[in-house]
Amino acid sequence: MAASVVIPADRSPANRVDDAITKARGAHDAGVGQVWVAQQLDGDAIALAAVIGAAVPGLGVGTSVVPINPRHPLLIASAAHTAQAAANGNFSLGLGLGGHAIEQQAFGITPTNSVQRLREHLTVLRAINDERTVDFHGTQITAVDSPVMPVAPPGTTAFPVYVAAMGPRALRVTGELADGTLPLLAGPRTIEEFIVPTITGAAADAGRPDPRIIAIVPVAVTDDAAAVHAAVADRLAFYDQIPSYQKVLAREGVSGAAELALVGTAPSLTRRLKTYLDAGATDVALMPLQTEWAELAPVWDLAAAF
Description:
Elements: E1 3-6, H1 16-30, E2 34-37, H2 45-55, E3 60-63, E4 66-67, H3 73-86, E5 91-96, H4 100-107, H5 114-131, E6 135-137, E7 142-144, E8 161-163, H6 168-177, E9 180-181, H7 188-205, E10 212-221, H8 225-236, H9 243-252, E11 262-264, H10 266-278, E12 283-288, H11 293-305
Parallel strand pairs: 1-2, 1-12, 2-3, 3-5, 4-5, 5-8, 8-9, 9-10, 10-11, 10-12
Antiparallel strand pairs: 6-7
């Protein structure tokens, strides 16, 4: 896949699962081969990906992304295996380190040494995928297979694991243990100068294949770019306060995340999206900035034609 799409979270429909399936089917009918769904507190991403994968045969489905806190990797793996079976082998697990402020507010936890937890989390998933068993005792996580409760169901295939890694240590761990990265709002300069050399170098050192770099890019197809930019600026301003994204903004030479959104006509967006591939991204995932069907259909067409 050169271009996939993110199914936007929409809280307005009476049944959001049915709505997500309808949007995913619309994307697939337009020629899109892969969709991604985000984790929310009022909806589970892995479960939703499983339902979509079962409802739309042949469509690739993935999570973008499931935070590694506070869920244990054995439970993540069991859910991912279920989704992989439901999607007939077309499921991808996207993980993230999580937002500390959100986790403190929602769960009452303040994660420490997130990169070490990521390493241990991925080590467990790698063992389950590659060896179909696990016996791991880390500083933050213990995961042990049991004959009574095996960790890998028979007949299922391994699922690829991607991490929304932004910092240098997280990228190195991802290159060593995962199959690639899902950076959001990482512009071409960040991809070329920072993400590609960091993650591919780590993968090479670990003897692993070159990782996939799936750049998630906010987009809106419109003839009125100025009006759409003004409408979505507040939505993306959240990222301006996160240190890892602040470093990206500085590297890209912009003052806010909204400046990294691609807004304009389909031909202009196609040209700008190609700069991500030129910079070293293996794929792009288009994240729609609008949710109405009439606004989503051009995004599906853009992804399918890219």
